[in-house]
Amino acid sequence: MIRGFVLGGSSSVNGMFYTRGSADDYDRFAAVTKDDKWSWDNLQPYIAKNEKWEPPADGHNTTGQFNPSVHSLTGVNAVSLGGFPQSIDPMMFKAVDELGGIFQFNEDYNSGTPLGFGWLQSTITTEGRRSSSATSYLASKYIERKNLDILLNARVSRVLPSLSKSSSSGYAFRTVEFAQDLDGPLLQVNASKEVILSAGVIGSPHILLNSGIGDSDELSEIGIKPLVNLPSVGKNLTDQVSIINEFLVNSTRTVDDLFRNVSLLDEVYTEFNKTGMGPLVATAGNQISFFRVNESLTNLFGDPSAGKNSPHLEMFPGNGFFGPPPPTGHFLHLGTVVVSPASRGSVTINSTDPFANPLIDPRYLTAPFDIAAMREALRIMFQYLSAPAWDGYVLSQFGGFANITAASPDNILDEYIRNNAESSAHVVGTAAMSAKDADYGVVDPDLRVKGVEGLRVIDSSVFPFVTSAHTQAPTYAIAERAAALIKDAWM
Ligand SMILES: Cc1cc2nc3c(=O)[nH]c(=O)nc-3n(C[C@H](O)[C@H](O)[C@H](O)COP(=O)(O)OP(=O)(O)OC[C@H]3O[C@@H](n4cnc5c(N)ncnc54)[C@H](O)[C@@H]3O)c2cc1C
Prior knowledge:
Oligomer: single chain
Active site: 426 (proton donor), 470 (proton acceptor)
Shape: globular
Bound molecules: flavin-adenine dinucleotide
Cofactor: FAD
CATH architecture of the largest domain: 2-Layer Sandwich
CATH class of the largest domain: Alpha Beta
Radius of gyration: 23 Å
Binding site for FAD: 6, 156
Domain Glucose-methanol-choline oxidoreductase C-terminal: 341-479
Structural class: alpha+beta
Pfam families: GMC_oxred_C, GMC_oxred_N
């Protein structure tokens, strides 16, 4: 399961898509936590604190490509539209016009109602550079603060208990145990107020379990002394499976040759460094689209989405092969994703060594809804490519995908899906928040670990459900909201 083990975490290595999800997603957060501060409307100031909308690198006219009224110019983390036109852009929207129906233009999928086809927004600066939490929140003006110290290459093993009279478990956790390298000595640091775990969807539950916070029976079985019985730690792991579908196309104006021709790459790299322009300022696709499955599926399996304005499916394009291309040919790829899945996995441990790898079981496609939804995503993709706009452009399907059609029977589609589905790296939910009085969940709506004192979790592990979107913008929104909670508690 890919994650960025680096300053800035996965935001330093991710695909930079900026997608907030639907208003329903956050209203569901508020409903399950019985706390309205997590609703879409109440999160808007925090989304705005995070986002700094910037013009795209090529300065093109963006009228009609986004809705300025739902964006912020004053936040920390740069967001912009693609700053390099792709040759497929006109066909992408012509097909939408030709097809109609579920293929509707959406001026701004970040307005709370994401369904339809829109221009992709990314965490890229107006200079065409990645905006990550390392380049934004740890930019020099913040990193110079006297009250901020960063220990590079430190790996946390556990949080350590002290006795507390005011917590229901009898413990506070204000000491962090860590090592500077895996063979080095274990060191400790104490917090006077509280410890905040932000080690991500795998790292945070891993540290909690190592520390004796988890399912007491499971911890006892492997020889870890259980201190706080929270069976939900590591459970509820939710990811969005995706498939990259590759097509050979009748064009040489794709990004494929950049990966094959070193002198061409040198040329565009020089252009990028000199002018901040060219193909390297953007990702390979400038659009994104979201759909709901047919109601027959939700009638049959139940609806895992957050509401009627929330997508189950995403389709995104790329003007070339995804990753290093084969030696010949030019490509279009269309990614299909189940963004509101029903399957749930887990993170567990089987060792008392805190640095041993945790066991990650994503249980992809185990819920029947998910495979049926991916079938539907593939059929929507074929419907999309049947628009006259694509006539003469798409030559054939490529690889394991060659013989799949919209009319393929379910068992053939299922085989293709099972052989090709992969993680979107949008994993959430392993230290989920729940209502204060709920008998499940890991953190309360203030993101404090239940039953203990002095310990919060603030990262993508606290999502109770995956948002129907890529997960960095929601993680930033949660983190900004949490920062205000911490200030309220101590200032
Ligand atoms: C390849 C990839 C592509 C993605 N593409 C997109 C995209 O295009 N758009 C989007 O919205 N989202 C995308 N995501 C998802 C998004 O980046 C994550 O949801 C988001 O970064 C999660 O933030 P986080 O703070 O929860 O965890 P992370 O960003 O993973 O940060 C966790 C941090 O904790 C550190 N850590 C972990 N364990 C320990 C430990 N024991 N001790 C010390 N430090 C530790 C890690 O080094 C890391 O710095 C992608 C993710 C990946 C990996």
